[in-house]
Amino acid sequence: MKSIWIGISPGPRTTRVLAMASASETILKAHLPARPSHPRALSTLLEAMALWHGTKVRAALCVADEDGAFDSSPYHDAFLDFGGPLYELEWLPAASAVRPRRDIALVGDFDDLERLLVFEVAR
In CATH, what number is assigned to the domain containing residue 33? Predict the structure, then answer.
């Protein structure tokens, strides 16, 4: 069964989301508010992508605080659900993805999340 790969990278101003159907097929790029307004927002987004495409989602949440520990990160309370029947969500330290350079394209550069998905999530 083919799966959808999704990278989520919360930042101080926005949360970047990149979804790919394969190493060369990007299906969604988005800038969302920095923190979701509802505790089930992320799980609902992942479930919706799985239902839309009819396949399981494998997602990576790329977050770390200054010490590299997710448990003390301000994002910990916003992303509580790490799995379900339609998706798997794993935490990866921010060091797994190299921060992107600024891009003049409308939604910006997502190269770091693309590398994370291809080399970490798709394994």
Answer: 3.30.420
